[in-house]
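Dear Dr. H.,

I hope your travels went smoothly. While you were away I took the liberty of generating a structure for the chain from your last submission, since the lab meeting agenda had it listed for discussion. I wanted you to have the full record in hand beforehand rather than looking at slides cold. The sequence, exactly as received, is reproduced here:
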Amino acid sequence: MVRRLEMLGGPRKRDGRWRAMTRGPKVVAPRRTVASLGPATLLAVSAFACLSSSNPAGSGPATPAPDGVVPASADAAAPAPAVPGAAGSAPAGADPAGAGAAGADPAGPDPAAAATGPGFAATLGHPPIESVLSAEARAWVEETLAGLSLRERVAQLVMVWMSGGYAPRDDEEFTRIESLVRDDAIGGIVISLGTPLGYAARLNRLQASADVPLLVAADFESGAGFRVSGVYALPNMLEMPGATVLPPAMALGAADDEDDAYSAGRITGIEARALGVHITFSPVLDVNNNPANPIINTRSFGEDPERVAALGAAFIRGAREAGLLATAKHFPGHGDTGTDSHVALPIIPGDRARLDSLELVPFRRAIAEGVDAVMTAHVAAPGILGAGAPPATLSPYFMTDMLRDDLGFDGVLFTDALDMAAIADDYGASEAAIRSLEAGSDVLLMPREPLRAIAAVVGAVRTGRLTAGRIEASVRRVLELKARARLHEGAEVDPDAISRLVGTQWHESFARGVAARSITLVRNEAGAVPLDRRESRSVLSVTFAGQNDLAAGRVFNRELGRAVRVRRARIGLDTHPGVYESLLRRARSADAVIFSAYVRPGAASDSTDLPEEVRDFFDRLDAAGRTPVLVSFGSPYLLNSVPDAETYLIAWGGADASQEAAALALLGAPISGRLPISLPPRHALGEGLTSGESPEAEQGPPLAGGRVRLAREEWPANVGMDGDSLARVDRIIDAAIRDGATPGAVLAVGRGDRVVRLRGYGNLDWASSATLSTDVAATDSSLYDLASLTKVVATTTGVMQLVDRGDLSLDTRIGEHLPEWSEGWKRDVTVRHLLTHQGGLPPFLPFWRTLRGEEAYREAIAALEPDYEPGDDGDPTVYSDIGFMTLGFLIEAIAGQPLDYHLNEFVFRPLGMTETWFEPPRSLYRRTAPTEVDTVYRHRHVHGEVHDENAHALEGVAGHAGLFSSARDLSKFAAWILAAAREGRGLAAADRPPPGPYTRSFSARLDSPSPEVVARFTARAAPASSRALGWDTPSGRSSAGDYFGEDAFGHTGFTGTSFWVDPELDLFVVLLTNRVNPTRDNRKHIALRRAVHDAVATSIRDQAVQPRDPGDAGGPAPSGSDR
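The corresponding predicted structure, in token form, is as follows:
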């Protein structure tokens, strides 16, 4: 299964940072419960990954095993050695090509994600829900039941509402609830809005007061963050994090992936149990086929009953496997209603046949899945029971005849909240409680007056209206439910575990991934998506939201502002008409207008439409030629209000993850969501415009040694290579890891556009290091600090494009674009001089000790005196970071864009390089290889930020270092530049058999630079030097080994990375290591590089491969080179 990532953040500010954003991991569901797996299988399963999904051989863009899980597919032939070398040598100012990462993730490992093997349940904190009770649990149920009086039994059927926020010990409301628990023996609590530690403190205190453990429930429809979300501290809106807010159910419907729904259930379960919640009142299984429904809407998975059923069942499975009881609601269906039952009694249309074919489909599937509970719906069904019949909650036909007898449900039946107007206004607390039990419900949820409800039910038993057996049956079900959640073994939670399990980076990253996959583009008639950032320099972003929705638009506008200049405005139901006049004037001066609507379903909502004033505003914008891009962060049915909207994008919810995903989609991120509902009259179920690449890879047949063949690995014989000979590289790399050359490595080998090796070996960190805490396997999607590969993959490619387009020539003086180079000895230095390391500059200077930011660096470089006279004949050649820093500044000056933004737009994104970043986000630290233990500059193990000190002082983005990438992404780049170099040199295309059954080739190409320019840049620039233009070529004892020819080209990086291409052999090799972990004194990678390249080259069988002429030295090795 694929982790989809997009590097789509906007440009980096001069005085701040623009960061690339992530589409988070796609977490895959095991198809069996953990309890059913054997010991061998347990070793291969992680809490969030399906079997072999994180194999180091790299199964496509597979989800890496979270937080250090080493799956069975990992190459574990030998134990990881102790960390070699010293604790880290000082970066003494001789790091000509370093690059790396930041300190350890302060959040620590995610135990939920890392759990495997026999300790799986203990690490998660809660084993899966027991479908069949143990003898011990059943004995507890019967013993507890026998010890309860009639009144106590009835009280066990009552659950009351409570806030989850902080409360002092003498808080009046909390004291009242504590009394209900201690003195009246109520059975449970429905906990609402609060904070993580507030939940734990309140619930632990109540559980300590209860003779029978309390069943704690919450409406965690969109993850635990639905009720335990982060808060904003007023008045400065300082954000304080909470539990994970997942996109709403309809977003899962738009992504339409059962694995996502499973993972949503599992993450919800892990966080809920850590907080002390045992049952979630979710999933919502209502089939939302009524656009006017004001209360269900995006809470539903959609309008197709089969997809609602499948996604709901997956969520239930995930929740239960994490130890969380699940509830299917609202039976018999609340989707086709036009009234909110919080304020009045809704009516569902149709007869029993319609109900069977539509509303009941998801409930049947949930019951078959083993759902623990069902919640009733306060709806009337006159087409079934006739006019004047009671609501379904109070109807024996629905709750007993249909649900119990016809559908075979034998779990716990909860009423919906009895304080809702649809019930409470007509029946009152006492009668509603009695009638609910008569109908067949087990739990009376949130009666307005709980003590009066208890007394009424006790009285009904004593008068014979209800039997004692009826009460006993419900109490037994409730106690069995508590036993299935193992509450008889202990109900209090460990507050210290909350920070390890709730709101973790892994969970947040998953939420962002689902949000991105759910974005649905319904209309794009004017071609406004993606925004043309060259033409849309100024964007007016108008947010329509409720007065209390303080977070609406914050993240969305922030992310847009990373790429374009955003002018913000906010309107609501109470906006003065004069504000619309002002907005019209501002819209006329803007290049684009975006209208974001936060119209969300919820209690007491009477409409999911836009008000008349907003509709008029849209019409006037159209008349002014400023038709807005309409983005919905809530109800998808806004087209009912503005049917002529030309551009319509749906994000489904307004949480941070959805706001971020919507902004990135407008800026060019791939869009793949499909409508899980219809938008009549123009848009049918399943419609949705797509854009960009959404790569998928499936696993092929297993290989020997526990590795897995990647979907895009070609059979060696199909590209003229000997498989047995090529397999030597596996043994070479394994041996080097055992010898302490590097904690792990990733190798990519390709011929033409086909990859024959794309595999990880070992781990990202040494076993004894605390940076990643556990052994995270190296995979083809692991991110490595490329160090000086930045010079060629990023900066040289950027220069090639400028030359190809005529914006620059090799003989252009640097001073023509950078004024500080226009005087003195620098005035004659050209682009060619800097590309060939002949610009008179020193290799490296420790500017980082005193300088920060581009302006300071440019001034310091301008003040340098020459180390030697610049020349063109290759002598002398002094490898210089400073020259490539300057080339980075040059690209920015000509392009008018920050370097990272420019390269992303014109190089990385066109090639489909979605895992290539400057400054990778913190959410990717788990898959990023740590580099050096820095004892001088940062005083920590560098992890997640650039290793090179000067690049770090330049805010992580520089022309000489700072780029992070994966072997998979670099294979795309290598396939492109290999093809361009061969075409530019006049080499004919290779005649090979069709691709193998599991192969996916990398065929993306850049329009610029042309093959001729590529060939020019990758050929030696002067006889006296091995240097090409930016690139290096093999000479002497090159890192490319002895068999890459003199026409090959490549480069290395100080952190242990290398990239070599041989056009004559139609071959590329990418080798990524983090050999500087923990110290740069480790030099064992030098022999490893040569051995790998020799083994690969000599496995070629379809053409002669000879050793390179040893006399081809290409001049002396340039001073300061990191080769």
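Two observations you may find useful: Confidence is low (pLDDT under 50) at residues 1-124, 692-712, 996-1000, 1115-1121. The domain at 520-666 is CATH 3.40.50.1700 (Rossmann fold).

With kind regards,
E. W.
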